[in-house]
Amino acid sequence: MNRTQHSDRPLVLGIESSCDETGVGIVRGTALLTNTVSSSMEEHVRFGGVIPEIASRAHLDAFVPTLRQALADADVTLEELDAIAVTSGPGLAGALMVGVCAAKALAVATGKPLYAINHLVAHVGVGLLQGGAGGPDAGPGSLPESGLPENSLPENLGALLVSGGHTEILRIRSITDDVELLGSTIDDAAGEAYDKVARLLGLGYPGGPAIDALARSGNAKAIRFPRGLSQPKYMGTAEEPGPHRYDWSFSGLKTAVARCVEQFEARGEDVPVADIAAAFQEAVVDVITSKTVLACREHGITELLLGGGVAANSRLRQLTGQRCSAAGIRLTVPPLSLCTDNGAMVAALGAQLVMAGVAPSGIGFAPDSSMPVTTVSA
Amino acid sequence: MLILAIDTSAVASAALVSDDAPESVVASFATEDTRSHAEVLAPGIEQLMAEAGLDGADVDAIVTGVGPGPFTGLRSGIVTARTLAFVWNKPLYGVMSLDAIALEVAESTDAVPEFIVATDARRKEVYWARYTLADAQLPQLLDGPHVGFAADLPDLPVYGAGAGIYADLVKAVPEFSSRQPEALSLGQFALARLDAGEALLDSTPLYLRESDARVPGPRKRAL
Ligand SMILES: [Zn+2]
Question: What is the pLDDT of residue B220?
């Protein structure tokens, strides 16, 4: 088979298993053919957070059915593929292992080249998918009008990734070989903070949607919670940046919420759950967006892509939009089904690597649960 | 019948076995360490097939060890086997991994009529099963597999790496004291059972332990 004949619009299958979603996506160049996801989220509800071993067990049982479904949805056969791509990190070690071993077996059985892909960079790669050819799960309207131009990333691109597993701001000079981490959380991911606070407030799991909904009826100004790592000693100045100028910390915020709840209880008063939810959400969203816009300004970033499951949060979308437009930054938010972890984003980045002529990873690589963003593919 | 067998319940291993081959062995490989499954398994299988001059179409069935074994390693073999079986459209069977060692015991000069096979379960425990042996027959699983402390094993000779680690607590058989389940014996066991018209398992992993997750209790109120 002549693989180069498809190199302008390669047919690529992507596999994602870094957390609790088993995803298989298929793209042709920048066109999305299918985005098939099986989630074990329901199994984690009673624990109030993702349990790695439960997620890994679910990946094992979901992989082949999800693969079969994706091939059927996209109406393609494995023989037609030009390449396979898989998330090899960062993520939960045991969960990554299932997807990586499955992808390697797929490569052995089909003889197709395999790309080991960085999950965080894949969140950015999804922004290159075109809306028009969206598959059944692409969502109504698919990519917004500000969708990025076909097959090329804009100059001065940044990405804000916010989910239950990660919180990062990236600068992307080339999606295939030049990605820089500008800032990240130094403890909990933002989504994790939502889950923990939701539990404190007696709300359900996942915490994001529960707090977002309740916050609408609360007064965000009733209580002021701390914005982590925003003191001058951490921030420094643009010329002399402090040690955490663009970094976040959410563990202190969670402690502050716990103390606040305890104080109301100790006084025998009703806990104003809606106000606390609104004030907590405001603290998270304020510090995320202010540091993001700061990083964009100081690095000449004029295009920002929002990714990760917390992109569903109404207040995060609203405030990011407001602050970006005030700073002259154009914001792109992919459809939510492409923001949460999925295989289509892995396939999308894989296709970019094929089109850029990057060599495949082979089948000898190991998954890397702390893979740095500077490693786009292994 | 040509079987591709895979076991990652301890080490990573794969084998091609066939009733047309001498001793039914076509080719096999096994690692020594127990922590590199993701790196070595797929290249090992690819090389095995290439050196034997075979491809997926030549394989009649795929057999995977279903444990017990450390979870992450165990899953790497099972998902590999499931994926190969799906792509090649071949039947997939499971074999309890300790059966691989039991078959080697049966074929050795150390064999006794009733014995235990044990492997390392970490956390100071072993995975174990109890077998009986009659002349010219496959070992029969009498009890297990279980996970537990070596000191609590029945008072019988114990074969396998789980005995070697706890040789001070059990009747470890020295010749087998570092033996791990491997795909070659697993495949031979599967072939013998299929030839005898006996059933095999499906590919469901035998975890034997729940995940460590705990449902959080209600938060203590300040008053
Ligand atoms: Zn993610």
Answer: 63
Same domain, residue pair B91 and B107: no
User: Which is it for strands A303-307 and A157-162: parallel, antiparallel or unpaired?
Assistant: parallel
For residue B203, is it within any domain? no
Assess whether pLDDT exceeds 90 at residue B147: yes
Task: With CB atoms and an 8 Å threshold, state whether B75 touches A56.
Answer: yes
The interface predicted TM-score of the complex, written ipTM, equals 0.95
CB contact under 8 A, B213 and A94: no
Quick one: B68 and B122 in the same domain?
no
pLDDT top residue among A142 and B65: B65
Q: Are residues B92 and B121 in the same domain?
A: no
Which domain CATH number covers B93? 3.30.420.40
Considering the domain architecture, whether residues B93 and B21 belong to the same structural domain is answered as yes
Question: Which of B36, B76, B90, B123 best tests the A interface by mutation, with the highest count of A CBs <10 A?
Answer: B76
Provide the residue range defining the domain that includes B107. 98-176
Nearest residue in chain B measured CA to CA from A262 = B222
Contacts of A307 (CB under 8 A, 6+ apart): A123, A124, A126, A127, A159, A160, A161, A162, A163, A334, A339
Is the domain of B65 the same as that of B171? no
Task: Please check the confidence at residue B173 and state whether its pLDDT lies above 90.
Answer: yes
Q: Do A97 and B72 touch (CB under 8 A)?
A: yes
Q: Are residues B64 and B39 in the same domain?
A: yes
Measure A253 CA to ligand 1 centroid, in angstroms. 22
Per-residue confidence (pLDDT) for residue A360, from 0 to 100: 98
Q: Answer yes or no: is B209 within a domain.
A: no
* Whether B140 and B37 share a structural domain: no
Question: Is the CB of B123 inside 8 Å of chain A's CB atoms?
Answer: no
The segments of chain A whose pLDDT lies below 70 read 1-6, 131-152
- pLDDT score of A6: 57
At B222, is the pLDDT very low, low, confident or very high (cuts 50, 70, 90)?
Answer: low
* B chain contacts of residue A202, beta-carbon cutoff 8 Å: 219
Task: Return d(Cα B183, Cα B29) in angstroms, integer.
Answer: 8
Taking Cα atoms as reference points, which of B193, B63, B185, B173 lies closest to residue B118?
Answer: B173
DSSP H helical ranges for A267-342: 273-298, 314-326, 336-339
Q: Which two tokens stand for residue B191?
A: 């072939």
Exposed (0-12), middle (13-18) or buried (19+): which is A232, by Cβ within 10 Å? exposed
